[in-house]
From TrEMBL, chain B:
The chain crosses the membrane at residues 16-38, 58-85, 106-132, 226-251, 258-278, 313-331. The keyword Cell inner membrane does not apply. This is ABC transporter permease. Keywords: Membrane, Transmembrane, Transmembrane helix. PANTHER family: INTEGRAL MEMBRANE PROTEIN-RELATED (PTHR37305), MEMBRANE PROTEIN (PTHR37305:SF1). It comes from Actinomycetospora chibensis. Residues 159-204 are annotated as: Disordered. It comes from the Bacteria.
From TrEMBL, chain C:
Pfam families: ABC_tran (PF00005). Coiled coil: none annotated. Keywords: ATP-binding, Nucleotide-binding, Transport. It comes from Actinomycetospora chibensis. Gene3D superfamilies: P-loop containing nucleotide triphosphate hydrolases. This is ABC transporter ATP-binding protein.
Length: 359, 338, 328
């Protein structure tokens, strides 16, 4: 009898959770709705699991841990310029408030509220990017309109009977094989996303809501706050690229691995964005000492691939994301190069960087 | 019967030694923190440990974080593991049963006694650590707090500069913004002590100092709010221990060796803790007894994050129901041969 | 509670007159048969001795009577209640000591008794009465003088007395005692025996298990003998120790007596002869001997000893017989 009760207690919730959804939606229509869902407000909790398996590089610890583990997030979303995301840890949290006037980051561990003037469009990935709506919209924006969309079996996610769509990426210049998105067919709000890389059976990134309430969030939750005794600091940017991007962009070529440079954002001339699809490459000049730190970090992690180049280069490659640090022979010029691209694109991009600088 | 079990529990020196040790650990940590003023780096170490330097009234939370992973479950496992097995190996079980005490009632009374033990232990830890925290770190040093809040408090903080020697808050970035206010007003209090405005300012500063504790999300917590959240966290920690208690109590009905039952329960816990941190075991993670142990921290978020807390409550309830049923089924059909 | 109990006692069929009755009780532990098909009958007011060597299943039987161990097969009725299902109803009227005393070692004897008393079902008694009861039983077993010392420091004899005190707390109608005199000195054994006889006289039925023949012989009115799990004898002690039909003759002239009685002499040890009974009984034999000039020092009926019976039933070499010799 005890065994029966135990089995019931374990089984019933598991069955309820595994109960398939029965939502139906035309895949192409759903895709369009998702792309247009940026105005849907919500309050919820999401968990993202990324299995890129990046080694921990001290200088990029935030990114490497983000892409190789579980991230727990609470979110309040009123619109693209009015949102709050709490990244939860066992001993604290880090909250990012997006307001029309800028952003604010509260770090409980550091007891510090940082008021951020502006972050560039091109920036390092951060936890908030893994929220299902953000991830889905950002990645779908990089797909080609004629990439085929097919229906996936519906899923129940955080109480939403969500219809699924798979967008298969045709572009061979990216490692992304397919994007699986489940969204509320009524509002188009994505509730779960799985990112699949070519040649890998399991999704590399999967994120889903655990709790979700649609509709405008409680406005009081969106006000940045700071604990008594905590400090406040103002910073022009909260992103590494926001600092690096203010540098000299003259060493960036116009074309990289066959991708044309997108005109740089104002005030961030040194951020090189090549291409607008998922296969885009990002190149940013690095100060010599920072390049040395990164190269050293990649070497120490022992997972890097040494690029065969005129200069010096090490690449960290995962089935999804690849990243390389390239330095000229004389050590005067260095770049970081990254993208959801296959190794070949990284190689040719690195060569183009070295060659472009020489011209 | 419950009363008898409580008297028995209270009559054992071991009970008080366990509670004493539980209270001692946070006290020792507090003494080291207070003398060295070296707090663990942000994001590392036990929760709230770096925050207590600012206000001792948060120390009960830090103390819970310190005893929760090992000390508290060990104490619970020892007491619960001994509950039936101890009576059995002492031979007193047979005398209780022929008294007669119904086996179901005995099991229930044991469970209640264990719960009371956990409650008393958690209350003692929280109580002693509050006293230790406030006496060593102060209930939020007014000077430190007010100095750190320059642009919020503006110019009306006459008391702010009065005892600047006591402020240990490192010059934070915030200090730069409105630091001039504090230094200007610092000259005043010496001259107009005793006048009514100073008293009022004094009061205001004390009020501010009292709400000098921040939630994880940066919300200032008043004393009542803090107390409510602490109570919630303590209640949740008590419930978190019920799973351990149920495992140990069940094993205690299976074996006549208290040590066996205790170690069995601890082995289950360690297995659970290992599996919780193992990604490959994610399919069973939601059912592991220690899965939601850390969720008490969520009481200190803003708004309070109830998802894991309620999952944890359900999970512990499930463990208690299943294991107590198993214990009951085993115990009531068992030959008492010791 | 009290009214319910009274009703139940009234409702119990008085016809059987048996306080303990078992039918075909068998207990297996795995493949080992500890108790095999035992039928016990303990009459109200009896002092029943349950005799058997160590390991013969006595303790298992006692535990089954109290509902601690569940019988594999068979029926048990104690004070009219079926065991184990209804045993809780009658346990308040039973005082028991099973396989040695047990107490919380860190508490005093008095506290132990108070706790034991308090764990029982409440019967509307207040704390005062309870304390009084504890004092009373401590007095009865001769522990009134000890105080505050934790049981940990007690001698085996004191623990035994404490266990007995615990059994007496309820003023039981039935006392089930397993080896109650273990660890007591001869003086203590005597005290316990007197106490049990006194309680029995006041109406308490005593069921006592022991491996000591002498103890049973000295105390009990009825005896049940168990050997390797089987009940081999159950009878009144007087019946067991009945006359053998022979007479024991003590005489300063055993040769003359032997000559005179001839074939009737069954045994001869120095000045003592065991003689088959002749018609007319002892008086006729005495007259016969004296008339023929054989002087007599004494003449008595020969009675069986319990030992003889037990040895005959269980075979020589068993613990029971050895113990008897050791004690002699």
């Amino acid at each position: 009898m005890v065994a029966v009760v135990g089995a019931l207690l374990v089984g019933v919730p598991a069955l309820l959770a595994a109960r398939p959804g029965d939502a139906r939606a035309d895949p192409q229509e759903l895709r369009d709705r998702i792309a247009a869902s940026a105005g849907v407000g919500w309050t919820g909790y999401a968990e993202a699991r990324a299995t890129l398996g990046l080694p921990r590089i001290a200088a990029l610890a935030d990114v490497t841990t983000l892409l190789s583990g579980v991230t727990r997030m609470r979110g309040w979303y009123a619109g693209p310029d009015r949102a709050r995301t709490d990244v939860l840890s066992a001993v604290g949290e880090r909250d990012r408030y997006v307001t029309p006037r800028g952003q604010a980051v509260w770090d409980y561990g550091a007891e510090l509220l940082t008021i951020v003037a502006r972050d560039p469009e091109v920036r390092l990935p951060r936890s908030e990017d893994l929220l299902p709506p953000d991830l889905a919209r950002r990645l779908l924006a990089g797909t080609a309109p004629d990439d085929p969309a097919t229906a996936l079996p519906a899923r129940r996610v955080a109480g939403v009977d969500a219809a699924g769509v798979r967008v298969t990426v045709a572009d061979p210049e990216t490692t992304v094989d397919a994007l699986d998105v489940w969204a509320d067919p009524a509002t188009g709000l994505p509730v779960a996303v799985e990112v699949r890389a070519r040649g890998v059976a399991e999704p590399m990134i999967s994120t889903a809501f655990g709790d979700l309430e649609q509709g405008p969030p409680d406005p009081t939750a969106l006000e940045p706050r700071r604990g008594p005794g905590a400090g406040v600091t103002r910073s022009p940017t909260s992103d590494l690229f926001g600092v690096l991007g203010r540098g000299d962009g003259s060493t960036l070529p116009a074309v990289l691995a066959g991708r044309e440079r997108v005109p740089p954002e104002r005030r961030f001339p040194a951020l090189g964005q090549y291409g607008t699809t998922l296969g885009q490459l990002i190149a940013v000049p690095l100060p010599a000492d920072f390049a040395a730190t990164l190269l050293g970090g990649i070497d120490r992690a022992g997972a890097g691939r040494t690029l065969t180049l005129d200069g010096q280069g090490s690449a960290l490659e995962t089935p999804l994301l690849s990243l390389a640090v390239v330095r000229s022979e004389d050590g005067a010029r260095a770049w970081v190069l990254a993208g959801l691209v296959p190794p070949a694109a990284l190689d040719s991009g690195a060569a183009d960087l070295l060659a472009g600088g020489r011209q | 019967m419950i009363r008898v079990e409580l008297i028995k529990l209270a009559g054992r020196p071991r009970t008080w030694v366990a509670i004493g040790l539980l209270c001692l650990l946070p006290a020792v940590v507090a003494v080291f923190l207070a003398t060295t003023r070296i707090s663990p780096p942000p994001g590392q170490g036990a929760a709230f440990l770096s925050a207590v330097l600012q206000s001792g009234s948060l120390y009960p939370a830090a103390a819970l974080a310190l005893v929760l992973p090992i000390f508290l479950p060990v104490a619970v496992a020892v007491v619960a593991g001994d509950a039936v097995a101890g009576e059995s190996s002492q031979g007193t079980l047979r005398y209780l049963l022929v008294r007669p005490v119904r086996r179901t009632a005995l099991l229930g009374a044991k469970l209640v006694a264990i719960v009371v033990f956990v409650v008393v232990a958690v209350l003692s830890v929280a109580g002693t650590s509050y006293v230790v925290g406030v006496s060593l770190f102060g209930a939020g040093d007014p000077v430190a707090v007010v100095r750190a809040l320059p642009e919020v408090t503006g110019g009306d903080d006459a008391v702010a500069g009065a005892g600047s020697a006591g402020g240990e808050q490192p010059a934070s970035a915030g200090g730069q913004v409105g630091g001039s206010d504090a230094s200007q007003s610092g000259a005043r209090p010496g001259t107009d002590t005793g006048d009514s405005t100073a008293v009022a300012d004094d009061q205001a500063a004390r009020d501010r100092a009292q709400s000098s504790v921040s939630s994880l999300s940066g919300e200032a917590l008043g004393p009542a709010d803090l107390a409510a959240r602490l109570l919630g966290a303590m209640g949740y920690v008590v419930v978190s221990m019920l799973g351990v208690a149920a495992i140990a109590l069940f094993l205690s009905t299976v074996t006549a060796s208290s040590l066996g039952a205790t170690l069995g329960a601890l082995a289950a816990l360690i297995t659970s803790q290992v599996l919780v941190s193992l990604d490959a075991a994610s399919s069973v993670t939601p059912y592991l007894p220690t899965r939601y142990w850390l969720a008490w921290v969520d009481f200190f978020r803003d708004p309070i994050f109830l998802r894991d807390i309620s999952s944890g409550l359900w999970l512990q309830a499930g463990y208690v129901v299943v294991l107590m049923l198993a214990a009951w089924a085993n115990f009531t059909t068992k030959d008492v041969t010791s | 509670m009290s009214t319910r109990q009274t009703q139940r006692i009234d409702a119990r069929p008085p016809s059987s007159g048996l306080v303990i009755e078992t039918r075909g009780v068998t207990k297996r532990f795995g493949s080992h048969v500890a108790v095999d098909d035992v039928d016990l009958h303990v009459a109200e007011g009896a002092r029943y001795g349950f005799l058997g060597p160590n390991g013969s299943g006595k303790t298992t039987m006692v535990r089954m009577l109290l509902g601690l161990v569940y019988a594999t097969r068979g029926e048990i009725t104690v004070l009219g209640a079926t065991v184990p299902h209804r045993v809780a109803d009658v346990l308040p009227e039973i005082g028991a000591m099973v396989e040695g005393p047990a107490a919380y070692p860190h508490l005093s004897g008095r506290t132990n008794l108070a706790l034991l008393d308090a764990s029982g079902p409440r019967r509307g008694r207040d704390g005062q009465r309870r304390r009084g009861r504890v004092e009373e039983v401590l007095e009865r077993v001769g522990l009134a003088a000890v105080d505050r010392r934790p049981v940990r420091t007690y001698s085996l004899g004191m623990r035994q007395r404490l266990g007995l005190a615990g059994a007496l707390l309820n003023r039981p109608r039935l006392l089930v005692l397993d080896e109650p005199t273990n660890g007591l000195d001869p003086h203590g054994i005597r005290e316990v025996r007197d106490l049990l006889i006194e309680l029995n006289a006041a109406g308490t039925t005593v069921f006592l298990s022991s491996h000591l023949l002498a103890e049973i012989e000295a105390l009990c009115t009825t005896v049940g003998v168990v050997d390797r799990g089987r009940l081999v004898l159950e009878d009144a002690l007087d019946a067991v120790r009945g006359p053998t039909g022979r007479l024991v003759v003590r005489t300063p002239d055993p040769d003359g007596a032997a000559r005179l009685l001839g074939r009737a002499v069954a045994e001869r040890h120095d000045h003592t002869l065991v003689v088959d009974a002749a018609p007319g009984g002892p008086s006729a034999l005495a007259r016969h001997l004296v008339e023929h000039g054989v002087p007599l020092d004494g003449l008595a009926e020969q009675r069986r000893s319990l030992e003889d019976v037990v040895v005959a039933l269980t075979g020589p070499g068993s613990d029971t017989a050895r113990d008897r010799r050791d004690r002699a």
